[in-house]
Design brief:
180 residues; alpha+beta; eight-stranded mixed β-sheet; 5 helices; globular
């Protein structure tokens, strides 16, 4: 992996480049994140996600990175730069960050999210983050398998989490991983 700690850094894996978001990514983010099969499995993206909302999301992400509240990267194919999804960690407490991700349906089932998450976990360790948390809606077993494969352990907590993509609450399994 190269340059994985600064706000302008890229993280490289065997098949992927995780790079900072740019305003040019707004079309991809808006078009892909609002797909029903994606937005219903994440909490913060509504069913209608226009380009302006994606631009605001990207701006807030850039500002959040500058303030040390998050590290968010666009997942791209190393071969051609095709955008595949987003992965990030957001500050959830003192020394604790929450991992989140989504992938375009065309990238599902190829191990990309696991590969990207392994790189993000390594970057979190290098930043001195002590603990990661994450969650998956109970009706998203693919994400549960990814989190389990990464080494997250269930906290025993299932919360009712509001999803803007569903416009309703749904049960969400919580998991955690110690990094220090």
């Amino acid at each position: 992996m190269t340059g994985q700690t600064g706000e302008n850094s890229h993280i490289e894996t065997e098949r992927l480049v995780l790079r900072p978001l740019a305003q040019d990514d707004a079309q991809f983010v808006a078009r892909t994140a609002a797909k029903p099969e994606i937005c219903r499995m994440i909490a913060r993206v509504p069913r209608r996600f226009p380009v302006l909302a994606a631009e605001i999301f990207i701006t807030r992400t850039i500002l959040g990175e500058r303030a040390g509240r998050c590290v968010v990267r666009l997942i791209t194919a190393r071969t051609d730069g095709e955008p595949l999804g987003i992965i990030g960690i957001d500050k959830a407490g003192d020394g604790v960050f929450d991992l989140g991700y989504w992938m375009a349906p065309s990238a599902w089932g190829q191990g990309y999210v696991t590969e990207a998450a392994q790189a993000m976990i390594a970057a979190a360790r290098m930043r001195g983050i002590a603990r990661l948390t994450a969650g998956n809606f109970l009706d998203n077993p693919a994400s549960a398998r990814v989190l389990d494969k990464l080494g997250f352990t269930p906290t025993g907590e299932t919360i009712e989490l509001f999803s803007f993509g569903r416009m309703a609450k749904a049960p969400c399994r919580r998991v955690a991983m110690a990094l220090a």
